[in-house]
Design brief:
Blueprint: H1 3-15, E1 22-25, H2 30-43, E2 49-51, E3 54-60, E4 66-70, H3 73-83, E5 85-90, E6 93-96, H4 101-108, E7 116-117, E8 120-122, E9 126-127, E10 133-134, E11 138-140, E12 145-147, H5 164-178, H6 186-201, E13 211-216, H7 223-235, E14 241-242, H8 248-260, E15 265-271, H9 278-284, E16 288-292, E17 299-303, E18 307-313, E19 325-330, H10 347-353, H11 355-371, H12 386-399, H13 411-418, H14 420-436, E20 441-442, H15 443-453, H16 463-469, H17 483-492, E21 505-511, E22 518-523, E23 538-544, E24 553-559, H18 565-571, E25 599-602, E26 605-613, E27 616-621, E28 627-630, H19 633-637, E29 640-642, H20 661-666, H21 672-675, H22 687-690
Parallel strand pairs: 1-5, 2-7, 8-12, 13-18, 13-19, 14-15, 15-18
Antiparallel strand pairs: 2-3, 3-4, 5-6, 9-10, 11-12, 16-17, 20-22, 21-22, 23-24, 25-26, 25-29, 26-27, 27-28
Helix pairs in contact: 2-4, 3-4, 5-11, 6-11, 6-12, 7-10, 8-9, 11-12, 14-16, 15-16, 15-17
């Protein structure tokens, strides 16, 4: 054999050492060598994934916790070194070399890779949106999830069509795990079962899931143990507890870093202060969270598919959080609940030992509901979380054999307890209005009077003393930081909000152009009383939404409202014709686009404005009396004011040719096109005749 033949044979052997594929490094185009590397990675099914424009892999921590790690240059180089052989021809013949840096950098910079996209990881079987079960370890292309269970997890078979006996047995197993906690009522117990079910059906939910408040009257009642039980069933280990930050920036960073690792269970433990954070509000209602990558000048985008829990004693929640939560309330009815004993199981030992049985029990309940055709159940309305409420509520009602389950039955009590913030602001607005009436007040004067009120020795229910004593808790420390600035920010975030039935609300009246000082007042508006017409008779008009900018047509429920001089004069202060809306730098309508209590046509139907923030408008629909919130710029711009509609067709201005569509529009009436209305002389039926 010649020397050339010996080199060729040696090269072939070195490229195939240990049965691994090989890449010849030599005088070839870089793209060709990178292509070979990618081909081998795909062919050998090397577990590399793509997540929001980056190559990632799944690794485990010391305790076995799997998490998603973005591949650095060194990590990717190590993967290549173990996945294939790199051989270079030298003067001494072929030699093994480390993966060349130029190949590593080139592949990492491609930006489009032939690997599967990964959203998150799961450690237990979960249901797909179509009701089928992911129960085989590995990657699932339908949901873009990777199922990576612990090797020790053994789950008993799940019946395809569970019987009533199967359901009873499943409920018995679940009760063994969580039945001995001192729940305040049945609603809290069923909410706890709903919390156990949530991780298993999370991926089949269209939309997001709310935060579970695990709350107790006294320390030592078992709230943290319940949270740990949920985590141990879902992951096989205790939850990694996260304390509640006091700063919203820190909230944002902690949420992003937790989601970046693909966390499926997130627990906020032992809350002491009021739970209120804009970043938490946003995360609970978002499908992805965007945050700057630590140490880099780029943003990371992380899917949000987690199950959220928060524990504490007598938790107080504020802001928008109450309508993003559900309540599991515990009360041991004793002063030292940690001294209780006689429990059937030590859950920290029993749950991990019976994890497979518990998961099987929960899967049995869910599969029984899916097998029955996913029958609907009566559950409270939960806005963005309705898909979750309908799914969990349906499973629990079916497991309750068609009876109305107590699931979410304590929502009203939660809202009442959590509404302390609203009650405080209502009291503050009443004290403000009693002192200033309709006077316009700058923040500087308001802050000065509040501080003077703290020294007033007179009647604390009147004057500046009353104003000081009515301060909401979040403003009560007037010596903390820049009080005037904090006060101004608090007012700006509550413009137009109603806190009780009085109709009192904050208005930012004007801003002095020279000084930039904003002037505020509390408006005493009783217009809400005439939002209910003297005589109501429902009908449906087929309203073309093209005229509203929607490009579609649909039935919009309306009401006939009496057209009286009393009503006309009562609304004249708010209905000043259709002004061109001002817009901010991102194209959102400005403050003057709509006013509180305006009567409007919206993309969802006609109604009354009950919230008017720059980027969020709430409309109470006349057809259902539910409040719909519009946050997209295009939806807000489609909302326009109208006046009262006459009670009788004889009074309609539409029969008068002098009332053109342009005049109707300027006067605040719906146009003929919006009502699909044609005058009688045209031979077409009016809405009354058509009905």
């Amino acid at each position: 054999m010649s020397e050339r033949e010996e080199d060729a044979a040696l090269l072939s052997h070195m490229l195939q050492t240990d049965g691994l594929p090989g890449v010849l490094v030599g005088n070839r185009p870089l793209r060709a060598m990178s292509h070979d590397v990618l081909h081998h990675l795909v062919h050998t099914k090397t577990p590399i994934y793509v997540r929001h424009g980056e190559l990632v892999r799944i690794v485990r921590k010391e305790d076995g916790t799997p998490f998603i790690e973005t591949l650095s240059q060194d990590a990717f180089k190590g993967i290549l070194a173990r996945a294939m052989n790199f051989v270079k021809l030298t003067a001494k013949g072929p030699q093994h070399v480390a993966p060349p840096d130029n190949i590593v950098k080139d592949i990492l910079s491609i930006g489009a890779w032939p690997f599967a996209p990964l959203d998150s990881i799961i450690e237990f079987p979960v249901f797909r949106p179509d009701g089928t079960l992911i129960d085989s370890p590995g990657y699932d292309a339908t949901t873009r999830l990777a199922y990576v269970p612990l090797p020790t997890l053994k789950i008993p078979p799940i019946p395809n069509h569970p019987s009533e006996e199967d359901i009873v047995n499943a409920m018995t197993v679940i009760d063994e795990a969580i039945g001995e906690f001192p729940y305040q009522n049945e609603a809290s117990f069923f909410n706890a079962i709903g919390l156990l079910l949530t991780p298993l059906i999370r991926q089949s939910i269209r939309g997001q899931v709310p935060l579970a408040l695990i709350d107790a009257t006294r320390p030592g009642t078992g709230k943290s143990l319940l949270a740990e039980t949920v985590a141990m069933i879902a992951t096989g280990r205790k939850a990694a507890m996260m304390t509640a930050p006091y700063d919203d920036d820190e909230w944002r960073k902690r949420i992003a870093s937790t989601l970046a690792e693909g966390a499926t269970i997130i627990t906020i433990d032992n809350i002491k202060a009021r739970l209120e954070a804009a970043s938490l509000d946003a995360a609970l209602t978002s499908s992805v969270v965007k945050e700057r990558v630590l140490g880099q000048s780029k943003n990371g985008i992380y899917p949000q598919r987690a199950t959220w829990m928060a524990t504490g004693n007598n938790i107080q929640v504020g802001g928008d959080l109450p309508r993003r939560t559900y309540w599991i309330r515990m009360d041991a009815r004793m002063d030292k609940p940690w001294t209780r004993g006689g429990f059937k199981h030590d859950l920290e030992e029993w749950v991990p030992a019976h994890r497979g049985e518990l998961i099987a029990a929960l899967l049995t309940l869910a599969r029984a509901w899916y097998a029955a055709g996913s029958p609907a159940a009566k559950v409270p309305r939960m806005g963005n979380f309705q898909s979750w409420a309908d799914t969990i509520g349906g499973i629990l009602a079916h497991s309750w054999f068609g009876n109305e389950s107590p699931f979410l039955g304590n929502l009203d009590a939660l809202y009442e307890q959590a509404d302390d913030d609203a009650m405080q602001w209502a009291a503050f607005l009443h004290a403000w209005h009693d002192l200033y009436k309709e006077q316009e007040v700058p923040v500087s004067q308001l802050a000065k009077d509040i501080k003077n009120g703290s020294f007033d020795g007179g009647d604390t229910t009147l004057g500046v003393a009353g104003l000081y004593n009515a301060l909401p808790d979040d403003l009560s420390d007037i010596q903390k930081g820049d009080f005037k600035r904090r006060l101004g920010k608090a007012l700006a975030s509550r413009v137009g909000s109603l806190f009780d039935e009085s109709g009192l609300h904050l208005e930012r009246v004007r801003t002095d152009k020279r000084s930039g000082v904003a002037y505020w007042r509390v408006a005493d508006v009783q217009i809400s009383q005439i939002a209910i017409p003297q005589k109501e008779e429902n009908f449906t008009t087929n309203t073309p939404l093209e005229s509203l900018g929607g490009g579609v047509s649909g039935d919009i429920p309306s009401e006939k409202r009496p057209w009286t001089e009393e009503n006309k004069s009562a609304t004249s202060a708010h209905l000043q014709g259709i002004a061109s809306p001002t817009v901010d730098e991102q194209g959102y309508p400005g403050w003057q686009h709509l006013h509180l209590f305006d009567f409007v046509i919206s993309p969802k139907g006609d109604g009354v404005i009950v919230q008017n923030w720059p980027r969020s408008v709430g409309v109470r629909l006349n057809s259902t009396q539910l409040v719909v919130y519009f946050e997209r710029r295009e939806d807000i711009l489609r909302i326009r004011r109208i006046t009262y509609m006459p009670q009788s067709p004889d009074e309609w201005p539409y029969n008068d040719p002098a009332w053109t569509d342009e005049k109707l529009y300027q006067e605040g009436y719906p146009t003929r096109q919006e009502l699909h209305y044609a005058p009688p002389e045209s031979g077409k039926q009016t809405p009354e005749e058509d009905a």
